[in-house]
Design brief:
By secondary structure, the protein is of the alpha+beta class. It has three domains: about 1-85, Orthogonal Bundle (Helix Hairpins), CATH 1.10.287.110; about 95-215, HSP40/DNAj peptide-binding domain (Sandwich), CATH 2.60.260.20; about 220-310, Urease metallochaperone UreE, N-terminal domain (HSP40/DNAj peptide-binding domain, Sandwich). About 30% of the residues lie in helices and about 25% in strands. The protein has helices at about 5-10, 20-30, 40-55, 60-70, 75-80, 90, 105-115, 155-160, 235-240, 300-310, and strands spanning about 100, 130-135, 145-150, 160-165, 170-175, 185-190, 205-210, 220, 225-230, 240-245, 250-255, 265, 275, 275-280, 285-290. A five-stranded mixed beta sheet has the order 2-1-3-7-6. A four-stranded mixed beta sheet has the order 8-9-15-12. Strands 4-5 form a two-stranded antiparallel ribbon.
Length: about 325
């Protein structure tokens, strides 16, 4: 059996780290992707080799076994020692009779193809982006499900979102409900893969696995939101009203006189919608940060000294 040098395939040294491997893979995948080289069988074959090499070298356990066995790695795989990366002949023939097919992180697709829209949100069915089956050893299920990670913003998790996706020659409009969080799964019944060849069998389901990206203002804890709000010295001393950060409509926060930095206020019902009951919302917790003037005029300094003297704090 011919030895496949995966390091040579990706053009990296044997001691390359994960970052170098990922960089090489993305560069080569862009170069040889079938969409960039339509009808080029040599480029298609090279693209498959690149994906097979990446599937092994990007997985620490597979890479360790590959380095350990060397030229015997492919023989070990065929003997049942582990998955052989991508069995393209099986996928081209329609794949296994059942099970779940899982695409890699959509961010990798965007990095590879530079897409900013969602029309190519899914790569073509056999695009080779981290496809793997999740079958057991029992009798195959009757349908084949798909699972895809989708990264959304906190604002989209708050309001709900839509994605236009292309899958297996079909255009799908996906609706993500308000209140989802990282780890939530959105099911689209009957939008997975057909069982039989020829796309004629019943389809499985499509599952969207949600990942909510970090936010620059808010920290989310379940359905509650946490943030900070800057309050000027005079509002903190005398009391007043400030606008609290919010994902929805603006929220007024009443500040009592004598408020100290670090004090936290709870605004009931101003957090994230609850997934199963979107009409209900969590709470918003606002920590106050009192801002001191950074420049004082001579007159202001004089007034502060007089004030300090009145309070008996003059040095």
């Amino acid at each position: 059996m011919e030895y496949k040098d995966y390091y040579k395939t990706l053009g990296v040294a044997k001691g390359a780290d994960d970052k170098e491997i990922k960089k090489a893979y993305r560069r080569l995948a862009r170069q040889y992707h079938p969409d960039v080289n339509p009808g080029d069988k040599a480029a298609e074959a090279r693209f498959k080799e690149i994906n097979e090499a990446h599937a092994v070298l990007s997985d620490q356990e597979k890479r360790r076994k590959y380095d350990e066995l060397g030229q015997n790695y492919q023989r070990w795989q065929q003997a049942g020692g582990g998955p052989a990366g991508f069995d393209w002949s099986r996928w081209a023939a329609g794949g296994p009779a059942g099970g779940r097919v899982q695409y890699g992180n959509v961010q990798d697709l965007q990095d590879l193809f530079g897409g900013s829209g969602f029309s190519d949100f899914f790569e073509t069915l056999f695009g080779g982006m981290g496809i793997r089956t999740a079958q057991g050893r029992q009798a195959p299920p009757r349908t084949r499900d798909l699972e895809q990670e989708v990264e959304i913003t906190l604002e989209e998790a708050f309001r709900g979102a839509q994605r236009l996706m292309e899958l297996d020659g079909r255009r799908l409009e996906v609706k993500i409900p308000p209140g989802v969080k990282t780890g939530s799964r959105v099911r689209m019944a009957g939008e997975g893969l057909p069982v039989g060849a020829g796309q004629s069998g019943p389809r499985g389901d499509l599952y969207l696995r949600i990942k909510v990206s970090p936010h620059h203002t808010f920290e989310r804890r379940d359905d509650d939101l946490y943030c900070e709000a800057a309050v000027d010295l005079f509002a903190a001393l005398l009391g007043g009203e400030v606008r609290a950060p919010s994902l929805g409509e603006g929220v007024a926060l009443r500040i009592p006189a004598g408020t100290q930095t670090g004090r936290t206020f709870r605004l009931t019902g101003q957090g994230m919608p609850r997934l199963r009951a979107p009409q209900e919302r969590g709470d918003l917790y606002v920590k106050v940060r009192v801002m001191l003037p950074d420049r004082l005029t001579e007159r202001e300094q004089k007034l502060v000294r007089e004030w300090a003297a009145i309070r008996g704090a003059a040095s």
